[in-house]
Hints:
The chain is of the alpha/beta class. It has two domains: about 45-80 and about 85-220 and about 380-460, Periplasmic binding protein-like II (D-Maltodextrin-Binding Protein, domain 2), CATH 3.40.190; about 220-375 and about 480-549, Periplasmic binding protein-like II (D-Maltodextrin-Binding Protein, domain 2). It is about 35% helix and about 10% strand.
Amino acid sequence: MSANLSRRTLLRSIAVGGAALAAPSVLTACSTETAGGGDVSNAGKKAAAWPTYTPSKGATPDLAATAEGVQAGFTRYPSDLVKAVAEKPGTGKQKIRVMTITYGTPPKPAAQNKYWAAVNEALGVDVEFTVVADADYRAKMATVFAGDDIPDVINLGGGYVLPRQAQFMKTRCADLTEYLSGDAVKKYPNLAGIPTYAWEGMGRVSGRIYGIPVERPKPQDTLYFNRGAFTKAGYKPGMSADDFAAMAKEATGSKKWALGSSATAFFGYKTHANWFGAPNEFAIKDGKAVHWGATDEFRATLEYLAKLRAQGAYYPEATSVSQVDLKTQFWNGSVLSMTDGFLAYPTAAQGIKDTFELDALVPYTVDGATTHYQQSQGCFGTTVIKKASKDRVELILRVLDYLAAPFGTEEYELTHFGLEGTHFKRDKDNNPIANELGLVESKTNVPFMYLCDAPQVLYAPGYPDVVKRLHAWQEKVVPLMQPDIRFGLQSDTYNKQGTALQQLIDDGVTAIVSGRKKPSDWDAVYAKWQAQGGKKVLEEFGEEYAAAH
């Protein structure tokens, strides 16, 4: 899941790298044929063209975006909003049943919820929400996949790998290729504004487009740090790995630790492995799929992290503290850095309250290695539409197009902040600040943003310097980014066993870095990973990649 951990890591303690709950047996027991959908591989199928990317017209940013993936930056909220949708998607008479994950609390019904009612009015559609608590999501999806009565719109993902998801999409959901592939998407200009990397991260099923990605920016897990404390200890962007280790040792002391980690962050090994030049989990080399666990660069990463742990630079409770509690330790200055999802920065800035300067680490360099940066999947999840008539599908696509209206539009303000005077007021810099009602009747508790959303921008209300630092940081790291080839590809074995395989890796890393095992024990861990399905996963991803490219 490593995608996108901003609000998720604040509200639940989940693996930064994506370990999730065990797959429900009702799904994992199904064979490909009995589950329906048959072959969902893209191998041997003609690949539908991705939607033609055409940036949506929102507000002019203070800091420009780039074609490579550096986000547009806004140091203050736009004063002149534009209108992105000329007509309401619906007539006011239609109803749509939708389902998404939530990390908040169940909302009051629309009749008693001014935010929900206002969005319904703007859409011209009565949206009936079913929100599923994060803790119940996997079990609920098992029931939905196996049942006959499914909602009109479902967001799949939320960071989880759902078994048989591709089969469900192919058999129960509308094939959206004719509506979205190539220039067809121009009928929905805000959906056309979703960048191609998000569609690629979502992937095709049997060569076809079955969903719409909820976009997330390219940076994956990010090592945020206390700029002042690190600088005092000798930090310089791009310093050598040896100098970084010396700096971390210098910064540690007096009940402060240079490096923070949690029971679900696993010492930030995924970030460091990329800096050591390892693949971003799965990659293609000499025409075959390879896994980072088999590389010398990954082994060197483990030795290096074990060294940092042995010298005392890591927070001593790194294998037991929750990610939520670790945030508190970072915000209050007890730990001087922590790996988190990139989108954690607005919440972190608010939590720190200007007690120190929040910044993101530019990778250190390793002799003889090509420094990489971990690229995200590019999407929070995939929104699918139940099979329906063409008119019905087009209505729902118009609704999703409205929800994808870009930052700086009237539509975006409504769906993200609610009604001015009812849910928020503006501060001296024009930033919408939620009032008491706005904290309850919100995009978190009525998560329209998980059905579809605008491409993310850099924006932290009241913290323009954070936006400037992160924009400058992205200009340095985006050119270093490498994708994980598994995103967007189909592997039946990974769908069934990916969670268990990931747990083997995470547990092995934790044991070695914490000192319970030696770095030389890694080969045995990796051999077990291969024997329990990893070897088959590599074969399937290799075949899929060849078909998609």
